[in-house]
Amino acid sequence: MTAERVTVSLPPELLDGARDAVADGSAPSLSAFVADALRTQLSRTHALAELERVLGGRPPQDMLDTVRHDLGLPAA
Q: 3-state DSSP call for residue 7?
């Protein structure tokens, strides 16, 4: 895979968390950690777009809130 170098600015707490993941072996490198995070977010974005397409639009916020609650996720 070809990689392209980019420069990004991150909040210190996010960068610290990513560096900790590399230090404890959860990620092979900072670049790999960031690439995986972007891959995950893009996958989520595509999945939500497909869900909206299938449902004919965005689900009502109260439904989304209920699902988030049921999954133990923080409120949006």
A: coil
In a domain, 3, yes or no: no
Total number of domains in the chain: 1
Phi, psi of 6 (to 5 degrees): -135, 160
User: What's CA 35's distance to the chain center, in Å?
Assistant: 10
Q: How far apart are CA 10 and CA 16, in angstroms?
A: 10
pLDDT tens figures, 36-70: 999 999 998 999 899 899 989 988 889 889 988 99
CB-based contacts of 22, cutoff 8 Å, min separation 6: 28, 29, 30, 33
Q: Is residue 4 part of a domain?
A: no
Distance CA 21, CA 30 (A): 8
Classify residue 7: in a domain, yes or no. Answer: no
